[in-house]
């Protein structure tokens, strides 16, 4: 899979409704995963059915990702988006991560996560939020 760059939007508990709306507007295939499916931070807080990750891919080549803001993280409208870099080329994506995080602030270190991918979040030195997700190469 080639690396991709796309927007990633955070929501305040209504990610499912928002992403289903965007699918109704743009068409395409929508995949949703909840916090409960992965034993994430929603456990025991009534958040198990909230969206941990959603991805809409359209036939026009659009990709939009989004999720509900996890418990314990602040939701701030107007700053509730990031640029996502994802793919399976670990060397390429780690290189982007190193350059983007240099001089910035790392919120989540680039490391293996509960869903099996290597993932990190940072804000670059210009205040732009980035997410990097490295999936295992498919053989």
From TrEMBL:
It comes from the Bacteria. This is VOC family protein. It comes from Streptomyces pratisoli.
